[in-house]
Design a protein that fits this description.
Blueprint (H helix, E strand, L loop, with lengths): L9 H15 L6 E6 L2 E7 L12 H9 L4 H4 L2 E5 L5 H9 L4 E4 L9 H6 L3 E4 L3 H13 L1 H5 L5
Parallel strand pairs: 3-4, 4-5
Antiparallel strand pairs: 1-2, 1-3
């Protein structure tokens, strides 16, 4: 399902750059940015390989890099992620009551977009071709690594 056929905006492009950083470091190419009042306040990427930490998914790393803020701050944010969030990352988004999520692609991993929507989160799925290709190539070339965590 394509909610938005436009090219990646500057925020999704920044998440893509984070995914590429992770890929170049030998990790899984999933990146994110947290945007508050039209400004990037945190960036992150999946680092479970690099740091040997099974919960350092792209969204979790992004939220960790945001530092401490009050609840109102998160209720004014949008999180951008290159791949549809898993149930753990979805839980973090719901915990912090982030009202908007922009997903770069959900072709290679369906994730929890519908669950987020069922909880009142505004979800936009871009399905950017470059993100679909990047993740598809990574999964095809690294099936054991991909299946170590969240296989389909």
């Amino acid at each position: 399902m394509n909610d938005n056929n436009s090219a990646m905006d500057i925020f999704l492009q920044a998440a893509y750059q984070e995914a590429l950083l992770g890929l170049r470091a030998g990790g899984i190419p999933i990146g994110g940015v947290l945007v508050h009042k039209n400004k990037i306040v945190a960036r992150g990427h999946n680092q479970r390989v690099q740091k040997g930490n099974p919960i350092l998914h792209g969204e979790i790393d992004t939220l960790s890099n945001a530092g401490r803020h009050n609840a109102e701050f998160y209720r004014e944010c949008t999180i951008y992620t290159t791949l549809s969030p898993c149930i753990m990352c979805t839980g973090a988004i719901l915990l912090y009551q982030i009202p908007k999520v922009v997903i770069g692609e959900n072709v290679n991993f369906k994730g929890e977009a519908e669950f987020l929507r069922s909880k009142g989160v505004e979800v936009t799925i871009v399905n950017a071709p470059e993100l679909i290709e990047m993740m598809g190539t990574f999964i095809a070339e690294n099936p054991e690594l991909w299946n170590e965590d969240i296989s389909q």
